[in-house]
Structure formats: structure tokens, C-alpha cells
From TrEMBL, chain A:
The keyword RNA-binding does not apply. Belongs to the peptidase T1B family. It is found in: Cytoplasm; Nucleus. PANTHER family: METALLOPROTEASE TLDD, PROTEASOME SUBUNIT BETA TYPE-1. Component of the proteasome, a multicatalytic proteinase complex which is characterized by its ability to cleave peptides with Arg, Phe, Tyr, Leu, and Glu adjacent to the leaving group at neutral or slightly basic pH. The proteasome has an ATP-dependent proteolytic activity. It comes from the Eukaryota. Keywords: Cytoplasm, Nucleus, Proteasome. The 26S proteasome consists of a 20S proteasome core and two 19S regulatory subunits. The 20S proteasome core is composed of 28 subunits that are arranged in four stacked rings, resulting in a barrel-shaped structure. The two end rings are each formed by seven alpha subunits, and the two central rings are each formed by seven beta subunits. The catalytic chamber with the active sites is on the inside of the barrel. One of its GO terms (cellular component) is proteasome core complex, beta-subunit complex. This is Proteasome subunit beta.
Automatic annotation (TrEMBL), chain B:
Pfam families: Proteasome (PF00227), Proteasome_A_N (PF10584). PROSITE patterns: PROTEASOME_ALPHA_1, PROTEASOME_ALPHA_2. Residues 272-281 have a biased composition (Gly residues). It comes from Kockovaella imperatae. Residues 264-288 are annotated as: Disordered. InterPro entries: Ntn_hydrolases_N, Proteasome_alpha, Proteasome_alpha-type, Proteasome_asu_N, Proteasome_sua/b. The keyword Nucleus applies. GO terms for cellular component: cytoplasm; nucleus; proteasome core complex, alpha-subunit complex. This is Proteasome subunit alpha type.
Amino acid sequence: MGDCSFGITGKDFVILASDMNAGRGIIKMKSDENKIRALGPHLAMAYGGETGDTEQFTDYVERNMRLYHIRNHNALLPPAASAWIRRQLAQSLRSRKPYAVNLLLGGFDTTTSLPHLYWIDYLGTKADIPYAAHGFGMYVALSTMDKWWFEGMPKEKGVELLRKCINEVQSRIVVQFNFNCILIDADGVHQLDLSASDPIADLSRAPEKAEVEVPNPIIAAPA
Amino acid sequence: MARRYDSRTTIFSPEGRLFQVEYAMEAISHAGTVLAVLSKEGIALAAEKKVTGKLLDLSLAPGGQMGGEGNQAWLGGGGEKIFLLNNNILAGLAGITSDANSLVNFSRNAAQQHLFTYDEDIPVEMLVQRLCDMKQGYTQFGGLRPFGVALLYVGWDSLHGFQLYQSDPSGNYSGWKATCIGANHSSATSLLKQDYKDDLTLEEARSLCLKTMSKTMDSTKLGSEKLEFATMTLDPKTKQPLAKIYRPNELDALLRQLELGGTSDDQVGVGEATGGGGGDEGNVAMST
């Protein structure tokens, strides 16, 4: 439970942020571990939980999403992907050695042009919600999101809210975190640099610098 | 050594043909015509009922409850031709009825399995592919006979909107704007080719579908006792797919409106007393 991740939806986008710590117990072994994975052209997840299980499970999910895409020429839409991932965790829970993985799944539905965010835990709980947190974020930042989140937020406000949450974590939680952040919109999955003063402006100025490696195949939408 | 004979069913002839598959397709070209027309607003599907007769009791048969809209469409088309496979997919079948029933059951199962794992209606082409994978299997493995059924699939999904597909016993499938299977399918398709326009309304698609059907079928006057009819549209409120299988009185009203026949209420059954019905037509095991 040394993790911390956030998800925020807004007008035509969803932001996912995750801490970058890796370690065991009270020992931190790494502070630059990427714990966000792109699963498709408009889908990504931030994950935490038992080390090893997390990598194993996200690899499994990523490759199955890719297989579906190759077989059917269309990637799974976020609602269908969330149902599949939830079922895998629910089935795993009832096996001899369940995956202990919690995740936030963010995606952009290209058929309805709506952003989606799902809170999913290792028990197979799934909630479709506008903003969410896992780990330490749940203790200290949910109230911050309750107060500042509003329907149809622009991207800049989304980043501002994320910064408020991270600030809360850094001032209230003993553990020190670095944060890694992505944004998903109609154009796909982009990296956001939280150390920049205005990451959204940077993104629109130079989108090629914010590219995230997305599993193949990427099939361009028909014009 | 039964195997020697069994394995013959699906091997190539010296000319490179698969006779069993060709015979299956031949069986279908004697079956009742099924015809569908695609438009931007929805799809119209009509099917000719071959098994009719005064003494045939369809009231308890699958589809005997005779249609309806939305969930009521699960009741079927009052015969053996039009079935709802999933909320978003209707099928019209031509061929051996018992084979068709088995395919309907398989595809309903596949659709529910998709709903179970992905919590969404199965995309139309995926269901078509599932079914065709199975049909293809029966042309390749020894000891089995291919399905003697061709299908028209009429459906809607969020990825590609309204879609119309056709599949045959070999497991081939293709997408169409308007097409036809069963008896006289070639003359019907050439009629459709002449009259189809890309910007049809649903109203026009319905009328093109039934008018072509009336030219294709042997009988001069159409009526609900010879025809099943269904449409796939979008519910104007929810924007979700809405299947409608016409009840006999609704279909007759539509046929009268298009001046293609339609038995008026007091005329129901009058024709059956004298000609038609019974006799060799009453054999349920035949191709429909």
C-alpha cells in the first residue's frame, strides 16, 4: 500500500497520475519507476499493488488488448475494456494465487467522444467515476477533489486540481513521492511533464515530444 | 471401415471442387427468398414463408407468438425465417430449418458470451465471423455435413452503425447495401441493383424491400401468411438499436399501403380453404 495514484476526467480528456516509487516495506529502491501503461491508442492504466503481480498483470492486460485489436481491427472501447479487466481480477481472486493489483483505467471513447475513468481494485470492484484515487491519495486527496472538481473542466484546470492533490500528499504523507502523469484525449495518449509551469501549453506546442509508446497496431481513424 | 466413406464428404473432387458444399448451396437456392435493404435510417428485412397450410399449427412453434418491437422481437417472426440473435442483430435464414435452428442457438450463445465478458452488445461483424468460423469448420473436417443454411444479418453497432451481411454454407461472408438469398436470388439482386439509391430513407428501404419481394415471389398478392417482415432502427429517444418484427396485421396494413396486397381482416383464411395448403407443402422438414 505504498502507492498513490490519481485520475481526473474533464471536457474531452482524462488525466492519470501515479507515484514512481518501487520498494519493499519501508525501503525505497527506486524513485523513477513508470507505473502507467498505455493499453491502446486511447486507453491507459495506472497501477499499484504487490510488486511482480503488477508487472505480470499489466503485461497480460496489454497483450490481450493488443490481441483483440489485431483480431478485430478495432481496439476495445473503454467500457468494454474495463469489464474485461474487472472480470480477469474477479476470476483471479477466486484462484489459488490471486493477483493483488489495484488500478485506475482511463480512456477516451472515440465513438461517443466521451472520456472514461474506472476505479478498479484487486477484489474486482469497478466504479465508473469522474475523479478517483488509489492508495495514499484516497486518505488525503479525495476531499480536495470533492471540493475543486467540476463538470466539463478544461485541461488546465485538471492539471491544477492534480497539483492540489499532489501537494496534499506531499504535505500530509511521510513517504516522499515523485509523480508521473499522462493525458488521454481524442488524439491519443500523451505524457505530461508536471515539472513544467504549463504542461498543457507545452503539449499543444510540441505534441511529438509528449508521445507515449502505445502497443501496436495503431490504426489511424478514417478521415 | 466407415471412415473411408465419411471422409469423402469434405474432400476436393479431381476438378478442385467441394461437392458437398455446392450441394448445400443448391439446397438453399430452392429455399424461401430472404431479402434486405440497408439505408442510413435503418434496415428492412423480408422473408418468404414456404411452410404454410391450413392444418399447420404454428401457435406453439418458435416464433408462433408473432413478433413485436424491442424485447418482444425475441418472440420471432411467426414462422421459421426471421430471428433476433441479440438486441442489436436480426437474422433472416434460408435453408434447412433444423440446421438453421442450431445456428440461431449458437449465435445467441456467442452474443451472450460477449455480453458477459465485455458488458456490451457484440459488434455485428464479430458475430458473423463467429458463425462463419463454425460453418467453415464443417467444410473441412471429415464425417460431418456442412450447414445447409445461408443467412442475412441485419444489425447496428457503435463502431460502424447499420450493417447488412450475408453468409453461405462455405463460411464465406460479405457486407452489402441490399442483397437477397434463397429462391430467385439472382433475379432479385439484379432488380435491387437497378432500384437501389445511396440516400434511401427507411420508408423507401421498406418499400423497395417489399416491392422487390413481390416481383420475386411466385404469388401475385403478398400477405402476412406468406411473408415475414422486420426492421432494425434506432430508438429516437435512447439512440439504441431497436428491432421490430412486424405482427401479421401490421404487415398487412403496410402491404395495403404499398398496394402490394395484404389480406384484409375478413379475408383471412378464405383462400386457404380452396387451394394451397396441406399436401406436400406441409412437410416441416423441407427447405424453407
